[in-house]
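FORM 7B: Structural annotation worksheet

SECTION A. Query
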Amino acid sequence: MGGPFFVEVCVAVLYRDITGTINDAQGTALASGTLSALATTPIVDGTIFLAPKEVVVDITAGTFTLQLAAGAYYDFQVMGVDGEVYWSFQAPLTDESAGEISIAELYLISVAGDTIDPEMEFLTRWLSLTDTPESFVGQANRSVVVNNTEDALEFVPAVAGDEFLKLTNPLNGATLYGVTDNAAVPTATILSLSESAADFDGPVTLDSVQFDLSAGVSVGLGEMAWNDTDKTINLGVGVPTLQIGQEMMMRVHNNTGLDISNGAVVSISGVTNGRVNGVLGDANDRSSARGVVGLATEAIANGQEGMITTEGLVRDVNTVGYTPGDPVFLHASVPGTYQGAPPPFPPLSVVFIGVVVVADEFNGVIWVQVNAPSQLTELVDVSVGVPDTGELLVYNASTNVFENKVPSFTYGLSFDTYVPKATRGKVIHQHGGIEPILTGGAVSSGSPQAFTNGQSKVFIVVNAGSDVTGSLTITGDSVDRSTGIRTIGDTEVMAIDGLTTDGTTTDAAGNTVWTFTNAYISGKWWLNGCSFSTTDTDISDFDIYSVAFEQFGDQPNVVLEGVDISANPINSNAWVYGYLYSLIVPSGNVCNITVEAGGGLPASEITANRLYRMKRAELDVALDGTTDGAWAELHFGPFNQTYWEDINVKVWARITETLVLT
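SECTION B. Predicted structure
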């Protein structure tokens, strides 16, 4: 439908409703309200009331009657939207009306003061109005006459020469149509002008809008104008002005407890009533620095909302001391400010704010384009626990993330032994072994226990005692196993805490198979005769063993992988059994000795002059070579017979070493 036009001075306005007051002869109001909802008989296409000033014209189809008591007077008043009565008419009811006054019976009024021109015809013809818009807004300097005697509604000025009617475009104020004489203005012309202007009551559809390129006007809230300097449209968003297409802004709430000044570096932190909170960016707070979004483009009082420029020009800031083109960064120590060099990282966060465009104390300009780089640990596919010097990121395919790991490399090694012949039931100890030294020993305060060994570490098995918690002291000569240097009269204290579980057994051929849990081993190598003494234990039964084992160069990250044995029997009565042992020190002086792989071939499975091989792999036994180790033992039979030749024993392991990066 057509929409309202701008109005000046004296206006004739056509709306859907009119307001009237109906009084009786004594002036008492009989009825009042909004005149609307016209009936359909007789054919009356609208109602027109005229006044020197603003009036209302209802052109909806149908009729409307005023309900009054018979014999009463009716007093109809037309008032403007300002509440002022501009015209009133009073007359007695006629008999034929029978208490009703039809709109069709109202005179067409040409207002000259409050008199009625009796020569005017009744309003009996209202034609060709069904397709008209519901309202017009026009302008008149004086009262106007509505001539409805023809098939079209016409506006005729009361005084020739008056510019009584003026239709204007509300988009730009341009005059669409104006009349300065008493020529009739057809309704069709007014309708055409109204509909061609714009659809003002709904969305405006335009092919294009041409702004005045030279206007140079400032814009207020909700206004738009051409910015010839930046070649874009200015949009008023409050105190700041948004240059459309050349900058981006966001609105934030200030709940910092302090005012945020224009040009302050702002970070987002939380939400208040659906609006993100703006706080001063702080390089000492990683979360705050990571959340920096831009510079305040207006002063924002505490508890109020304001605009932040996230990309674009921020004006009227202090850039004194800078040169155009200089970068600015989040300040190292003063939250909400900027500086010309990045702060030291670590520990501070580096946040690039933008570039100085104009250097001035009061009228400085900064182009804002925030870049708060992510730290490595913030990447979505990186999982870093507690980082340490020299670590590398290693991809973990099971979790699809990179993890911090100590750089290392792994290599394999083995120790092996070749024996041409095995005679007399020989036991081959591959890089170590166990030898019993003393069985059933006892030690208590004041009663030491002496023993004689070769050159090795020693361990004890505590079988019984009234007090098996305390310490034992070894006294004797020690030997540095790496250098061979002896220390005469050396001592070592071994902590004792409970009994040992001795799980030692024999195999099918009667060979000893060692197993101990919670035995106690010396840290040093001892030479020849030594003794145990104590001041706080009473051990009535303990065994002493000499033990030697391969420690793989004291490497801490050793994995025992397997054992490989091959031999050639020259007699079908030959048999062989082999065992791979580990010795692990879980803590202190406690040690556990375990068979990691073992088995054999009895004589019933042997054919002379055939090569036999026994292998056990994928053991994956973790050892710490600084304290732990391994060895192999082979048992050949029968006793006192030379039935085996070309014996090879190999123990495999892999070592992972830390890669030191400098």
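SECTION C. Observations
The two ends are 82 Å apart (CA to CA). DSSP finds two helices and 48 strands in the chain.

SECTION D. Sign-off
Analyst initials: ____
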